[in-house]
Amino acid sequence: MRPSSCLLEPGFLRRSLGEFKRFAKLESIRVPMTPYHLLDFTDPETITICKTMSDADMGGFSKARIDQVPATATEPAHMKFHGSISTELPPDRPHIQRSGYAAWRSKDRGPTLFGKSLWDVDPYLYLGLRVKSDGRKYFVNVQTESIVHTDIHQHRLYSRTPGEWETVFLKWADFVRTNHGEVVEPQNEMMTQKVRTLGIGLTDRVPGPFELCVANMWTTNRLEALDAYQEMSEKVGRSS
Q1: Helix (H, G, I), strand (E, B), or coil: what is residue 188?
Q2: Is the dihedral of CA 198, 204, 210, 211 positive or negative?
Q3: How far apart are CA 184 and CA 157, in angstroms?
Q4: CA 168 to chain centre
Q5: How many helices (H) and strands (E) does the chain have?
Q6: 122-160 pLDDT, tens per residue?
Q7: Using CA atoms, how far apart are residues 33 and 178, in angstroms rounded to an integer?
Q8: CA 110 to CA 122: how far, in whole Å?
Q9: What's this model's pTM, rounded to 2 decimal places?
Q10: H-only helix segments in the chain
Q11: C-alpha 99 chain-centroid distance
Q12: In this structure, are residues 59 and 53 in contact, taking their beta carbons and an 8 Å threshold?
């Protein structure tokens, strides 16, 4: 009897062990008080599990890239999401009436011994992000194992200090259900126990360059921005 090919994929046992440890911890702690790491872009490997999307996929002219930026004396290692927005319509596709967007998201995660690998953020209240924004109108996008596969839950990523690093917290309960960029009803509660992907999109349709830097994304029950971020970073550092 031969093992399934997915059992032999690199990282399968590591992901399964990570899921087992997390399940065991959640069973023993009703309200977790330590941050739960989701996407750590201080690790150069994280960018390899992400991908970009833009209107160029349908013949448009916007451009989007994600690049890994190493740490310096003044900045953490991070992922840089950058490019340019164009609202020019493809001349050979008259059915396309709207253009001008770019986004990135994490890829679907590989399987584990417990089935499909999903993030369970249900025990937590907030999504935390360590970002440096150019001040444009970005949205955080969340895909779950919802009945409607194309549903995306969104929340505006507000920047208080454009051009500087800052920590932003978003309530999971405040995300809005959308489909193909439009708010839809009914506003069903997001399946926070079955999160498939995380990402950020730019849909302001303002032509020109953009740049958003992301060092980390995590979930927490605490709003002490620096304490939560530093504790999460130290925990990731000890486990790496």
Answers
A1: coil
A2: negative
A3: 20
A4: 13
A5: 2, 13
A6: 999 999 999 999 999 999 999 999 888 899 999 999 999
A7: 30
A8: 21
A9: 0.82
A10: 12-28, 225-239
A11: 23
A12: no
Please give the span between the terminal C-alpha atoms of the chain, in angstroms, as a whole number: 35
**Where does residue 167 rank: exposed (0-12), middle (13-18), buried (19+ CB within 10 A)?**
middle
Q: Which of 33-37, 113-117, 141-145 has the highest mean pLDDT?
A: 141-145
pLDDT for the residue numbered 240: 47
Residue type, 112: T
Give the Cβ contact number of residue 166 at 10 Å: 16
CA nearest 201: which of 57, 58, 48, 53? 53
How many CA atoms lie less than 13 Å away from 223 in the CB half-sphere? 4
- Rounded to 10 degrees, the C-alpha dihedral 97/137/38/74 comes to 130
Distance CA 46, CA 1 (A): 35
CA angle 143, 209, 170 (to 5 degrees): 35
Rounded CA gap, 105 and 51, in Å? 6
Write the DSSP assignment of 28-57 as a string of letters.
Answer: H-SS--S-EEEEETTSTTGGGGEEEEEGGG
In degrees and rounded to multiples of 5, residue 237 shows phi and psi of: -60, -40
| Pair 239, 233: CB distance under 8 Å | no
Chain position carrying tokens 């596969």:
149
Q: Would you report the helix, strand and coil content of the chain in percent, each value rounded to 5?
A: 20, 35, 45
Rounded to whole angstroms, how far apart are CA atoms 103 and 172? 20
